[in-house]
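Worked example 2:
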Amino acid sequence: MCRMIGQYDEYFVIFNTHMSPDFMTYEDLERVLRAIDERMAHYLAEDTE
């Protein structure tokens, strides 16, 4: 089991997943976390406009 908690200004993102070669690899997890980070950065940039 892997859990990520990220704070983006006043927002919190919580992501949980099971880790296994047949379900979620470390490479998959890295892609998901990068996507979450990029999307949150995009939404936060929109809030400041």
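The radius of gyration is 13 Å. The longest helix spans residues 26-47.
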